[in-house]
Specification:
The protein is mostly beta strands. The chain has 2 helices and 34 strands.
């Protein structure tokens, strides 16, 4: 998969913003998680604290609710900070998608609705979020797919199934170790012949064959030749590709729009993308023009409704990290300090 310089130091940021990079999903614009002194709360678009930082962990608002953790149990709050689903779950995956949220009870995963009622009882070893009314689950170490009523529509016989996008999902069986694409009933649509493959985006999927990456359409036809060391999914008409260990961007026709010259990069979001030069990150536009000068730590992500979370500085002596939300000009809206907790710290 794509090589980046994401650091362990910013794993917590990755957890908070992972969903930004998946399916171009956008979080609610009115609330953003922040975590001064390692307690999670929420700010508004202007950086004003609207929910006090008091939780052990907190995820983005999804469909009007956010998952938060208190006393090692997860529940959900609304935009006012009111607890609407009590703290009772061992874990939560991402939050609500298509009206359902994956939660863990007694080491098993199931799905609840916005009232907290279990629509699909906890029974799976792992689950994902719903996309196109389907969710991937794992039972007895094998991946399958369920619908919103809990009906198994793809039997758990795959070793990996990705997220459904545009009706198809990448899937792997260990017996051949190759990636192909299946439909919503588990039928093979694109034969398993690739060493790796990403989800479809804007009609194309990046796939790896014979040591190189290229792009195929939904019929399996190669539309952008296998010419890249690595390749990412398309977002806003552009995809990141790696040539001679440097990253640039191509369009949907395979034309090189931004010449490879970056050590790593993200995906375009709201017209900008994070790029790395000499160990620090900044933002460029679709013409390759630097909009926000590279200055941020590894673990810098895409914009959501005009703001993005960045690592602004690290004090090597104290271990304190300065995190911040910036706007699309690079202006800091709010910043705070926190430390990275290790497993020993939290045991």
């Amino acid at each position: 998969m794509k090589q980046t310089a994401l650091s362990l130091v910013f794993l917590v940021m990755w957890v908070l913003t992972f969903s930004i990079l998946q399916l171009d999903a956008q979080s609610e614009s009115t609330r953003y998680p922040f975590f001064p002194a390692n307690k999670y709360g929420y700010i508004d678009r202007n950086g004003k604290e609207v929910i006090a930082p008091k939780y052990e962990a907190g995820l983005e608002f999804r469909e009007g609710l956010a998952a938060v953790c208190e006393n090692q149990k997860w529940g959900f709050i609304d935009a006012s900070g009111k607890v609407v689903i009590p703290f009772q779950f061992e874990d939560v995956y991402e939050g609500f998608y298509e009206g359902l949220a994956a939660v863990q009870v007694d080491s098993r995963w199931g799905y609840i609705d916005r009232s907290g009622f279990f629509v699909i009882k906890p029974q799976y070893e792992r689950t994902g979020f719903f996309s196109e009314a389907l969710a991937v689950m794992v039972r007895n170490g094998k991946s399958g797919v369920v619908d919103r009523n809990g009906n198994i529509v793809v039997k758990p016989e795959f070793d990996f199934i990705g997220i459904y996008v545009q009706g198809l999902a990448p899937a792997v069986r260990v017996k051949d170790g190759k990636v192909g694409y299946i439909d919503s009933l588990g039928r093979s649509v694109i034969a398993a012949r690739y060493e790796d493959g990403l989800t479809f985006s804007q009609g194309l999927a990046a796939v790896h064959l014979n040591g190189k990456w290229g792009y195929i359409d939904k019929t399996g036809k190669t539309v952008i030749p296998f010419a890249y060391e690595f390749a990412d999914r398309f977002s806003e008409g552009l995809a990141a590709v790696q040539v001679d260990e440097l990253w640039g961007f191509i369009d949907l026709n395979g034309n090189m729009i931004i010449v490879p010259g970056y050590d790593s990069c993200g995906t375009f979001s709201e017209g900008l993308v994070a790029v790395e030069l000499d160990g620090v990150f900044g933002y460029i536009d679709k013409a390759g023009k630097i909009v926000v000068k590279p200055q941020f730590l590894p673990g810098t992500f895409g914009f959501v409704n005009g703001l993005t979370l960045v690592g602004a500085a690290r004090d090597e002596q104290s271990g304190l990290i300065t995190a911040a939300y910036i706007d699309m000009t690079g202006k800091r809206i709010i910043s705070w300090k926190y430390t990275i907790l290790t497993r020993t710290d939290t045991d």
